[in-house]
């Protein structure tokens, strides 16, 4: 099994279509070109899950340990995912502050280099807990 990640060309990639939640699945018409499924999930669902997973600093450390954060194709993919910070996609994020802040930090080369340090993940976890406590006090 190869350890190199598969290259991803995001140069002309558009954000995925937002699923229409108001349609009844039984009456849904089939589009001209149905969206391909990846393991039974749409690209929208996969990218949403990935962006939400970025809220976990330990997951980001895992990505760094797998050398993904130095892969130019993966860095381009992180840049492409910036569309989640804008409506209408923003409303689908469960933890938008944490997810989008990490996505923003991952745009910085030095942060990507430092992300392999488990101490950084722990510090981010502590900061997140402090922020949550302060937010609840307000």
UniProtKB/TrEMBL annotation:
Signal peptide as annotated in the record: none
Biased composition (Polar residues): 20-32
InterPro entries: Med31_sf, Mediator_Med31
GO biological process assignments: regulation of DNA-templated transcription
Keyword Endoplasmic reticulum annotated: no
GO terms of molecular function: transcription coregulator activity
Keywords assigned: Activator, Nucleus, Transcription, Transcription regulation
Region (Disordered): 1-40
Keyword Transmembrane among UniProt keywords: no
Pfam families per record: Med31
Compartment(s) where it occurs, according to its Swiss-Prot or TrEMBL record: Nucleus
Annotated Gene Ontology cellular component terms: mediator complex
Protein family per UniProt: Belongs to the Mediator complex subunit 31 family.
Subunit structure and binding partners: Component of the Mediator complex.
Role this protein plays: Component of the Mediator complex, a coactivator involved in the regulated transcription of nearly all RNA polymerase II-dependent genes. Mediator functions as a bridge to convey information from gene-specific regulatory proteins to the basal RNA polymerase II transcription machinery. Mediator is recruited to promoters by direct interactions with regulatory proteins and serves as a scaffold for the assembly of a functional preinitiation complex with RNA polymerase II and the general transcription factors.
Name used for this protein in its record: Mediator of RNA polymerase II transcription subunit 31
């Amino acid at each position: 099994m190869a350890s190199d990640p598969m290259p991803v060309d995001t140069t002309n990639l558009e954000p995925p279509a937002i699923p229409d939640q108001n349609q009844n699945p039984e009456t849904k018409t089939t589009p001209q070109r149905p969206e391909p499924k990846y393991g039974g999930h749409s690209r929208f669902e996969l990218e949403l899950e990935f962006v939400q997973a970025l809220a976990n600093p330990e997951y980001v450390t895992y990505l760094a340990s797998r050398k993904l954060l130095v892969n130019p194709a993966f860095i381009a993919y992180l840049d492409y995912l910036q569309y989640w910070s804008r409506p209408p996609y923003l409303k689908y994020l469960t933890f938008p502050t944490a997810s989008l802040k990490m996505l923003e930090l991952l745009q910085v080369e030095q942060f990507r280099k430092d992300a392999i340090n488990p101490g950084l993940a722990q510090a981010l976890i502590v900061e997140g807990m402090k922020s949550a406590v302060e937010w609840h006090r307000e």
